[in-house]
Automatic annotation (TrEMBL), chains A, B, C:
Name of the protein: N-succinylornithine carbamoyltransferase
Catalysis: reaction(s): N(2)-succinyl-L-ornithine + carbamoyl phosphate = N(2)-succinyl-L-citrulline + phosphate + H(+)
Gene that specifies this protein: argF'
Family annotation (PANTHER family): ORNITHINE CARBAMOYLTRANSFERASE, MITOCHONDRIAL, ORNITHINE TRANSCARBAMYLASE, MITOCHONDRIAL
UniProt keyword Iron, yes or no: no
Enzyme nomenclature, EC number: 2.1.3.11
């Protein structure tokens, strides 16, 4: 594996989930695999779970890790070609990426969208150029339009916890927020769940207010419902997440009705497990009573980030 | 040991000091103890000595270390329960702490007081919630009201350097500063010295201007003197430190007389060793002539931070 | 080797270059040398190549690495002696350096000039005091007036790529920029090339506009040319770099003529390899067509930073 940027980079998601769960049961089984190998983690934006879990995953495989907070310890990067660099950008991504590839065996990159131009963000220009010029395998630590480490983790968590008969019903439920957030997490989740649905692993529904439709390249096969209560009926997993509008790009549109998940709404489900990628705004996106209650899977989900990252690193090292 | 937040977490301080000195004489004797274990160091505030010495201590024990500057690389954390998180805090301490505990075997936390509300600071709400929710052993890297790694180091340094007969006289001497500083270091020092006095290891005096009395929960058994010169007579160790008022909380009160330690004042002592936790403001808190002279113990003291941290980590790993 | 701050700290540069190239061909041959040793990297200013390559070099030797971004994770340091520290500086370099030396076996320090006072910058007061007070071997990660790791790398790259008969002609060519940059890189490059010229390894020319003459302590033996085209004729290596004026200290002086290297100008050379320390401003300092073309050595040069750093660390550990 030379690139992990979306579900399309994985050939067999069922096996890949199993690989991660095997690592969870025996974390240090491959401690020699990463000997003398270095993982470079490049952050253009803040991180907590991704930073810590990916570091720990690499350490479990015997790799060393170098973290580079490019935004804070480095400088602004230019991505456009053909510009005279007489402004505020100090180095071009062509050089910066190539240089990082000189010192690291695998690189991870986090780079958020600016939410100003849909074309720019959805071109994944920054991420793609980094991959193109660095010359080593790359793991997305969340790009402008996807967060595949998170979505892989989410599928691991569903597989790990699902003890029912048949196929679990999974609902991605839009939630309110005060800020305009990227679509990366819901895009990626939809993409992974659509693939999982195609393989008979889940039954997948998206619940959202009108105007919040995601790009259809990610949602193929998903049922789309504009009524949260209707979507929740019979749900086995509810994945709560805010995102800004894709159509009216980057905007926070008014949403009629109550979209925050509460215990009252949870009673409509099949005693569903509640998931969130974190960080979560308590009592704005998701009720505290759920986060502090028995149905919350959010901490287990965060813990599983480690095994998702380790499975990918293992694949790249093998 | 599951928690190191104050002297009360140590059952036998004499033995604990000896453990640290044993590690100093053979730093790598326990290099296998931390195999496959990760220490996470979480900083809400800047650090030099604590950051470096605790990292090195963990490395000496074979642990790996992940540093998280939450204030710079992460985001603002909410600590209050029951609030709708529609403001500037991005994640609740409940989730953030629990998540960090998923990736680390031991966590260290630094979190300074705001010096605005005495009740809030002295409740140690932030530190205690972190301990409560992270689910793994925690070392205080300085909290709102205590800096136990520093005070343990100070006791190690006194034991290591005291060659006299009998019990050394230790004076905690308030010093001037231009900023309002926390009481954490003097609180903690007083707490450790009071315990050490109770065990016959030191004779402990606090010298300070009126209005700078510390919370009595930390100073039990200490002699309190309002005249620096009187306190210095016969002193074997002078621990210089500024702090803001506890009574008139967080305020810098006017102090009559000269409270900066100089060579002239040092002549009143029993050729005392001079200590300071650092960073120190030269010629404001403490005269350069002392820092550059033969009585200064400040660099040795800083070096001993390593063995204090290593002794605690060793205890937690054992 | 106790200090690496300039070419004067190296006794045999030919052998030293060979040592680096030997490490490049067998990076992990000395993986036991750094066991239980810690390298501390102290940054007062941003870094990409230096930070990553020096970390990786230390890891290859089995050392552990602690990075300290003093400007971001720490606080402002005082360097002047005899001042009452009642301003914004929190700690004196005397204490800060000594403390870092307590935890690290080797220290690296990056500290840029302020470009306000030539006397202050060229005294190397900050760097020298750090060396004086830390008590352990020190590597310059770029100081006010020199960047010896870079220049050592440049010599390695020339030796590695030169396949011609005789002595290669090396031209240091001033280039335009929008900001006032330090003279550290050209000073250091000139110093290393002058030494290399004295040992018959290169033939060295400096091309620059009038007013940009470097301090003569660095340029002894170099030919000085004020006409870029004339200098380029017969060049085997062109080292492109901007710097601000040394004479009219820290100023960006007007430069008549076109000083940006392009393919057209490159045709004047002996099909020269083009070098730059990076980061480079594309199409301002150096044409994109060169950076993206076959004559560019900049990525290889950046990659060689690793072997330069490893050769120095190996020397210090031996």
């Amino acid at each position: 594996m030379k690139l992990f940027s979306s579900v399309h980079d994985v050939t067999d998601i069922k096996q890949f989930v199993q690989d991660a769960l095997d690592l969870k049961s025996d974390p240090h089984a491959h401690a020699a695999l990463g000997k003398n190998k270095t993982l470079g983690l490049v952050f253009m934006n803040p991180s907590l779970r991704t930073r810590l879990s990916t570091q720990k995953a690499a350490l479990n495989l015997g790799m060393s890790v170098i973290v580079m907070n490019m935004d804070k310890e480095g400088w602004a990067l230019e991505t456009q070609d053909g510009v005279i660099m007489n402004g505020t950008t100090v180095e071009h991504i062509r050089e910066a990426a190539a240089v990082m590839g000189q010192y690291c065996d695998i690189l991870g990159l986090r780079s958020f969208p600016k939410l100003q131009s849909r074309d720019e963000d959805y071109s994944e220009d920054f991420f793609n150029k980094f991959v193109q010029f660095c010359g080593v395998p790359v793991i997305s630590l969340e790009s402008a339009t996807r967060h595949p480490l998170q979505s892989f983790t989410d599928l691991i968590t569903i597989r790990e916890t699902w003890k029912g008969a048949g196929t679990p019903k999974v609902v991605l439920a839009w939630a309110p927020h005060v800020k305009a957030l990227p679509q990366a997490v819901p895009n990626s989740f939809a993409e992974w769940m659509s693939k999982a649905q195609a393989e008979g692993m889940v039954d997948f529904t998206i619940a959202q207010p009108e105007g919040y439709e995601l790009d259809e390249q990610f949602t193929g096969g998903a049922k789309l419902v504009y009524d949260l209560d209707a979507a929740l009926r019979g749900a086995d997993y509810v994945y709560v997440k805010n995102w800004s509008s894709y159509k009216d790009y980057g905007k926070v549109l008014p949403a009629s009705g109550n979209w925050m998940l509460t215990n009252e709404k949870l009673r409509l489900t099949n005693n569903a497990g509640v998931m969130h990628c974190l960080p979560v705004r308590r009592d704005l996106e998701l009720a505290s009573e759920i986060l502090d209650g028995p149905n919350s899977l959010v901490i287990r989900e965060a813990g599983n980030r480690l095994w998702a990252a380790q499975a990918i690193l293992k694949k790249m090292l093998s």
